[in-house]
Amino acid sequence: MEGAAAIDLAKHVLAMFGIVLAVGTFVGLLAQKLRVPDVAVFLLVGMLLGPELLGWVNLKADSALNQLILIFGSCYILFDGGASLRLKVLKEVWLTILILATAGVLITAAVTSVAAYYLLGIPFMAALLLAATIASTDPATLVPVFRQIRIKDRVAQTVMSESAFNDATGAIVTFAVLGIALGKGEFSLSAALWDLLQQSSVGLVSGIVLGYLAALLIAHEKFAFLQEYAPLVSLMAVIGAYLGADGLQASGFMAVFVFGIVLGNKDIFGFAMEPGEQQKLEDYVMTTALIMRMFIFILLGAQVDFALMQKYLLPGLGVVAVFMLVARPLAVFACALPDRGAKWQRNELLFMCWTRETGVIPGALAGMLLGMGAPEAKAIASVTFIAILVTILLQATTTRWLAQKLGLLVEQQ
C-alpha cells in the first residue's frame, strides 16, 4: 500500500510540474508580447492556479520539494545574473554596492520597523523582525527583469549585485533580532559585523575558486577536457558553490553569484571557449534560468494565503508604502552619494530608489520564522507576502516605463 501511495504522489507531482511548465510557457510568451517582466505574470498565474482558486498547483511552502526548488532555482538565477556582469563596470561602482548591501539594509530595516510598529500595532521587536525580513532585495526577481529590459550597464549591474550581496546581511540581521525577541541572546554589533565579514569572505573565496576551476576545465587551451560538457560543469559547480559555502557557515548565494561573475569574465584569465560551445552553454543557461523562474514564481503565487493577507491588508499596505517610498530612497541616497568616484546622476539614483523588488529570499525567511514560532510570525508572513506582491506587480511592471522616462534604456543610449 505504501508503494501505491508513493506512486500516486509521484504522479500528482509530475502532473503539477507539467501544468507549471505548460502554463508558464504560454504566459511567458504572453509577457514577451506585452513587454512586461515575466516574473510578474508568473506570480499572478500562480495565485490563480493555487489551492485558494483553481487548486491545480498545491505544494506546501514548508515541504522539502518546495525548499529544493526555491534554493536551487534562486542559485541558478543568481549564477545567470553573475555571469552577465562585467568586472570593468563593477570596478566603477563597488563602493556603492558595498554600502548598499550593508548599511542600506540597516537603514531600510530601521525606517520600516517604525512604520510596522505604529501601523500594525505589534511589539517593537516583532516590527523590527518584520523589517529585517523584507529589508534585502531579491536577485531572483531583479536578474530576470534586467535580462529582459536592457538598462544602462552600471545601473543594472549595481542593482543586481546589491541584491545578491545583501542577502547575507538581511539573514544575519533577521536571526540576530530573532534571538533577542526569543530571549536567547543580546545584540552585539561587533559580533554581527564579524559574522557578516566571515560569511561574505568565505562566500567570496568559494565563488572565486570554483569559478576559476570551472573556467579552467571548460575553456583552457590545454586543460579544457570538459568543454563539451560545459553546461553540466556549470550545473555541478552551482550546486557545489552553494553547498560548499553553506557547509562552511557562509553565504551560499554569494558564492554562487561570485562563481557566475568569474565564469562570465573568464576572458580576463586568458580563457576562451570555441564559439559553438560558448553558444551551447549560453542557450542552456538561458533555458534553465527560464524554467527556474517559472517554478519559483508560480509556486510562490500558489502559496499566498488570501485569508491571512486580508486580515493585515490595509496596515500591511501602509508598511509597504513607507518601505518603498521612504526607506528605500533614504537608503539609496545615503549609501550612493558618499561614493564620489561613481559620479551618480540624479536619474540613476531615482531609478535605483524605485527598483528594489522583494521576493524569494524574504519569502523563505518568513516561512522559517513561521516554522520556528517567532513572535507575530503570522503578521510577519502576511506583510512579507504583501510586500512581495506589491513590489513585483508594481515595480517590476513599471521598470521599462521608468527607465525610458529617465533616459536609461539601452535603446536610447
Could you walk me through the main structural features you see in this protein, from its secondary elements to its overall organization?
This protein has one domain: Na+/H+ antiporter like fold (Up-down Bundle), CATH 1.20.1530. The chain has 17 helices and no strands. With 413 residues, it is mainly α.
> Which of globular, elongated, flat, extended, rod-shaped describes the shape?
globular
Structural class: mainly alpha
Using the CA coordinates, give the radius of gyration: 21 Å
Average pLDDT taken over every residue = 83
What CATH calls the topology is Na+/H+ antiporter like fold
Major sheet details: none
* Number of H- or I-type helical stretches: 17
| Second-tier CATH architecture | Up-down Bundle
H/E element order:
HHHHHHHHHHHHHHHHH
CATH class descriptor name:
Mainly Alpha
What is the count of structural domains? 1
Number of strands: 0
Instruction: Please give the share of residues in helix.
Output: over 70%
Uncertain regions: pLDDT < 50 for 5+ in a row? none
